[in-house]
Amino acid sequence: xxxxxxxxxxxxxxPRCPRxxxxxxxxxxxxxxxxxxxxxxxxxxxxxxxxxAGEILVRVNAAGVNxxxxxxxxxxxxxxxxxxxxxxxxxxxxxxxxxxxxxLTPGQRVVYWNPLPSAFAEYAAVPAWxxxxxxxxxxxxxxxxLMVQGTTAHYLVTSSFNLQAGHTxxxxxxxxxxxxxxxxxxVAKGARVVASVGGEGKARLARSLGAQVVVDRTxxxxxxxxxxxxxxxxxxxxxxxxxxxxxxxxxxxxxxxGTCVLFGxxxxxxxxxxxxxxxxxxSIFFTxxxxxxxxxxxxxxxxxMADLFAWHLAGTLKPHLxxxxxxxxxxEALTQITGGQSLGKLIIRP
Length: 350
Known about the structure:
The protein is α/β, with parallel strands linked by helices. The protein has 2 domains: 164 residues, Alpha-Beta Complex (Quinone Oxidoreductase, Chain A, domain 1), CATH 3.90.180.10; 142 residues, Rossmann fold (3-Layer(aba) Sandwich), CATH 3.40.50.720. 26% of the residues lie in helices and 25% in strands. The protein contains 10 helices and 16 strands. The strands form 3 sheets. Strands 4, 5, 6, 7, 8, 15 and 16 form a 7-stranded mixed sheet that branches. Helix 3 crosses helix 4 and helix 3 crosses helix 9. The longest helix has 16 residues. The radius of gyration is 20 Å and the shape is globular. The N terminus is likely disordered.
């Protein structure tokens, strides 16, 4: 049974002092004191958390930036009440073990995803079952790029749809954090990838990753290009992370009895949906998955990450690192990812 999530911690501020490498009573963190614009996030000295029973304390080396972080800060997708530290995934070193933790040791490198934010800080206390040991040969930056966005790509091609050689795939936002990994995995599986991107720089990245057809949506209609590339049949599976702006066309772009997967809402959340479009497209299947249902327990964390690590070490899967910031750069990183300006994975190094 999955343990209950820990209660939300409060983060009282204390007078600021310089960053220190040793474990101290306080740490530096990016702090959200009220919901609002990213520019209101400030770096503050806060109390270092202590791991509760079943938790580990991680010294954070690299934290991952995700689109959902923006909604948590703005208050449009709330998970914690202010004051809180944003960020839901990080790679680093186990510093301390809470009571009852087994299978991990202090000094071990791990990567984790925890839905309750706390990662943009020097330390984070997280449930031990959500952490995965990082193998030799994998950097912290790569490990964190493979956690939220990598496991998302993994379940999309294994659980949401069993992607096989010969399938045609349409990937929206193909140069983004999930998209650029999804393209590589699909190519490695022998699928034909039609990649939708916005801008020449993103188009170059998608081509370099092996996408057979790359469509710059700022210059050409994506769905016309897909129909042309498939002789009018459409894609066996459409992966749509854009949402409101594309979903109806994505349904119609799906091949008869194919699958359309909506897994994000970069252009806005999808509200009402005309289900007759699924019949018009050819009795297609539609699903709206979420990561939490595909990382339900420690076994799913371990299994999905083992595949991703193996693919990376074999040279099949190479995360593109699109930028690195310190804690002071959290507002800029969030602006980039929520504004569709990012390429690959964005990293915060506390």
